[in-house]
Amino acid sequence: MYKVSDLTKKAYRVKETADILGVTTMTIRRYDREGKLKTVRTAGGHRVILKDDLIAFLDRKGMIVDDTVQDKKDVIYARVSSHDQKKNGDLDRQVLFLVEHVKDLSNPVILKEVGSGLNDNRKELTKLLQMVSGDQVRNVYITYRDRLTRFGYRYLETMFTAHGVKIIVIKDRKEEKSVQQELVEDMMSLMARFSGKLYGLRSGRRKKEQ
């Protein structure tokens, strides 16, 4: 998959185009004869493919993403762990805090959900990942790193950076106690989960021994 920004030349020679498409120069000449990919001659007699024609061809093949579009979105992502927190207004307060403290929001999209930071299959998080993968996002705003994920934050950061997306943390000190409490709850949940698996392994071992 190519990005429009990857194509920096005004025109590409037949060999260069063949390398980009992963085909032979004979195939490029055949495309020209069939009217699929037009070539033009330079003053020196060399055949070249103009950048715009190459982009149009790649687009028809589904091989290019236009990362030069200026209407990328800023995403405000908010999450709480429990429905009680949502009922108390914690989720909406996160959103309001970010809206009030981000000065240059562009085409904002608000994603908010209830779910544990240990759950990597959250609906709105998945939607965010799809938007980033589709090069639709400029910045992601959160109040704490844990809002995105309890573990594996660096993986998300690396993936976002690869798509030119910045994760911007704007801490809300009033929310700190809530974040700490969620951490305790998630750790207890994690311990219970592993204890259950350990018990299951021991139980299975005993059955085999019997």
How would you describe the overall organization of this protein?
- It is a single chain.
- The chain has 210 residues and is α/β, with parallel strands linked by helices.
- The protein folds into 2 domains: 2-65, Multidrug-efflux Transporter Regulator, Chain: A, Domain 2, CATH 1.10.1660.10; 73-176, Rossmann fold (3-Layer(aba) Sandwich), CATH 3.40.50.
- Helices cover 47% and strands 18% of the residues.
- It has helices at residues 14-21, 25-33, 51-60, 83-87, 90-101, 123-133, 153-162, 176-209, and strands at 2-3, 11-13, 40-41, 47-50, 64-65, 73-80, 109-114, 137-142, 166-169.
- The strands form 3 sheets. It has a 4-stranded parallel beta sheet, with helices on both faces.
- A hairpin with a 5-residue loop joins strand 3 and strand 4.
- Helix 1 crosses helix 2.
- The chain is elongated and about 75 Å long.
